[in-house]
């Protein structure tokens, strides 16, 4: 399992984000949260390296040339438990070299400042580093990096709504999202007419007599439906294109990210679905076909078979309005 270390540039990082990390760096100390241990980080130089006792120690070394790369390899041979590495200029090649040289000897932690850099470090040479040290207090970068390093810790709150009515509404443009991943039963994407209430639409994972299953695809609904662009913002389905990240969700709210392989927009018969949770009515518009299924507490059900009283899995977003997909908590917005 990959490790996430954070060195906040300020002290404003929320506790719930900190708790999803393995190690917090503060004043050259590595604080291991689950073990409740604190270790000093050593920063050896070429001149004093031979005199240092580094067995089971944590080292931090900047790679500036082949000599410093060799120094890290030597630290692994001498039994360093962790080596935190930063790079002056080149990023990929030094990482590739070190992963090949010290994998299994010392744990390699790459210093990064963005989620994009973290993704590169964890995927370099396919094996990737053993973890990343994120140096930031930007909440968006922290959340993005958690999603990459610790996707199993991120969950959305899912709840049950009851179908009120369904209504065929004629033809319209619907969006198929073909992803770069394979989904299983109970997984799919969130889609809804209102940003505050999103239905879990199952991927095309079910076999049927007429069409082959396409477990990489979510037939996500009308092009004007909202879905999550990330955990903080929404996007319209029409906005997605090949290469964009999308969030895949299951009925328990566990999420992971994948990328769009292609977007396919076609004119198809549509169906309006309305569901109620407490005193709130939420809606979505999906393709009206037997292969389109919404996730239920125990399985999934074709939209063509939904009846009043059926239970479906939904996600209720934060209160307020949306401005270009960003939640504005105190804005009054009426969506019908």
Overview of this protein structure:
- This protein has helices spanning 15-18, 66-77, 92-102, 115-123, 139-149; strands at 3-6, 23-26, 29-32, 37-42, 58-63, 82-87, 107-112, 131-134, 158-179, 187-194, 197-202, 217-222, 226-228, 234-236, 245-250, 255-277, 280-287, 293-295, 300-302, 311-316, 321-323, 326-328.
- With 336 residues, it is mainly β.
- An 8-stranded mixed β-barrel has the order 1-2-3-4-5-6-7-8, surrounded by 4 helices. Strands 9-16-15-10-11-20 form a 6-stranded antiparallel barrel.
- Helix 2 runs parallel beside helix 3 (92-102) and helix 4 runs parallel beside helix 5 (139-149).
- Residues 320-329 have low confidence and may be disordered.
Q: Roughly how many Å apart are the termini?
A: 45 Å
- The strand order across the widest sheet is 1-2-3-4-5-6-7-8
Order of helices and strands: EHEEEEHEHEHEHEEEEEEEEEEEEEE
**How many helices does DSSP assign?**
5
In this structure, how is the largest beta sheet organized? 8 strands, mixed, barrel
Class inferred from helices and paired strands: mainly beta
Number of strands: 22
Q: What number is the mean pLDDT?
A: 88
Radius of gyration: 24 Å
- Helical content stands at 10-25%
List low-pLDDT spans. Answer: 320-329
**Beta-strand share of residues:** 35-45%
Tell the overall outline: elongated
């Amino acid at each position: 399992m990959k490790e996430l270390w954070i060195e906040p540039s300020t002290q404003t990082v929320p506790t719930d984000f900190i708790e999803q990390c393995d190690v917090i760096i503060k004043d050259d100390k590595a604080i291991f949260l689950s073990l409740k241990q604190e270790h000093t980080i050593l920063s050896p130089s070429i001149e004093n390296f031979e005199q240092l006792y580094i067995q089971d120690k944590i080292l931090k070394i900047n790679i500036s040339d082949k000599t410093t790369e060799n120094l890290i390899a030597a630290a692994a041979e001498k039994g360093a438990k962790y080596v935190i590495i930063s790079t002056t200029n080149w990023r990929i090649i030094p990482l590739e070299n070190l992963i090949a040289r010290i994998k299994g000897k010392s744990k390699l932690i790459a210093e990064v400042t963005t989620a994009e850099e973290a993704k590169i470090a964890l995927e370099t040479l396919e094996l990737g580093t053993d973890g990343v040290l994120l140096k930031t207090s930007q909440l968006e970068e922290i959340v993005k990096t958690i999603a990459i390093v610790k996707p199993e810790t991120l969950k959305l709150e899912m709840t049950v709504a009851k179908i009120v009515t369904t209504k065929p509404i004629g033809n319209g443009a619907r969006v198929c999202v073909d992803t770069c991943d394979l989904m299983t039963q109970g997984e799919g994407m969130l889609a809804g007419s209102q940003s505050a209430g999103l239905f879990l639409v199952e991927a095309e994972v079910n076999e049927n007599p007429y069409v082959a299953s396409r477990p990489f695809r979510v037939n996500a609904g009308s092009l004007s439906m909202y879905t999550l662009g990330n955990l903080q913002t929404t996007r319209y389905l029409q906005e997605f294109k090949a290469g964009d990240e999308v969030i895949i969700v299951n009925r328990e709210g566990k999420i992971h990210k994948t990328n769009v392989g292609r977007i396919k927009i076609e004119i198809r018969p549509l169906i309006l679905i309305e569901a109620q949770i407490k005193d709130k009515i939420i809606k979505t518009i999906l393709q009206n076909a037997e292969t389109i299924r919404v996730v239920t507490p125990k399985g999934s059900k074709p939209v063509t078979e939904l009846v009043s009283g059926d239970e479906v899995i939904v996600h209720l977003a934060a209160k307020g309005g949306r401005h270009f997909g960003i939640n504005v908590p105190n804005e009054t917005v009426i969506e019908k």
